[in-house]
Design goal:
single chain; about 300 residues; alpha/beta; Spore Coat Polysaccharide Biosynthesis Protein SpsA, Chain A; 2 domains; eight-stranded mixed β-sheet; about 40% helix
Amino acid sequence: MRLTVAVCTWNRCERLRAGLTEMTRLLPQEGVEWELLVVNNNSTDATDDVIASFAGRLPVRRLFEPRQGVAYARNLAVREAAGDYIVWTDDDTAVDHEWLRAYVRAFRDHPAAAVFGGPIAPWWSVTPPAWLATAFDLVSDAYGVREFGDQPLKLSDTVVPFGANMAVRSAEHRRFLYDPTTGRAPGRDTRGLETPVIRAVLAAGGEGWWTPEARVRHYIPPEFVNGGYIRRFYFAEGKRYSRYHPDPRHPRLLLGRPIGLWRAALASALRYRLARLVGGPRAWVAAMTRAAYVRGNLAGYRREGGPPAG
């Protein structure tokens, strides 16, 4: 069996160094050959020097994608991959030493399956405040954390892994590539790039499996450990939803947006203010994320066939 591990990176050379260092501790697997593709997505820092420093320690091959955007970088890795499966992680993760072994077991246990995914745990750079620790499960998506339990289960529309820890069989992956209009790029910080790919594989008849022993940790920088970051994340998610789900049903508009959506934004903002006064962390964090999401809906609203608003 041949595997390709793929990492795309942009201007995070020190985080990349930490992640590749963890990969040097991966336990070998008999009968498995693997390569590591690191795609430099037009970085201006010391990314190339970091990649070169692991030659001889990892089976690493550097690729370069000049077009800015993680979708372009990922699609280059898919085209260049020599493995039977492409195993994805990010430049700010630390993989468990059993990570590849766990995926190999899953590939052998489910030879008909085409997509797999594993847990992503938080890798805190600083101790989170008490309110965030109390309500973390409500906002874990904002931190790239994914958990569906410690038993294998089939993937579905609601059981979908995140791109920082997933594997796709190469044959299917070459049929279903990443959309360059989505994902992180200059001026755009949207998530969920991998979800349409996974769902397309499943919709085409592919089988998918949650692989609980293939674990990684996702680094959370200090500047993300606050309410402002959470609000920005859910605002962007709400805006993205409105952009890709245009709604022609609202005849009454105010400043180009439905009056009902204005009301919902105002009501959710008021509920958040009330929860901050009288509720505990779980109550006000839930209200805060809802208010940010609805404001994003409002900002991104468009009618069917029209250009994105905002």
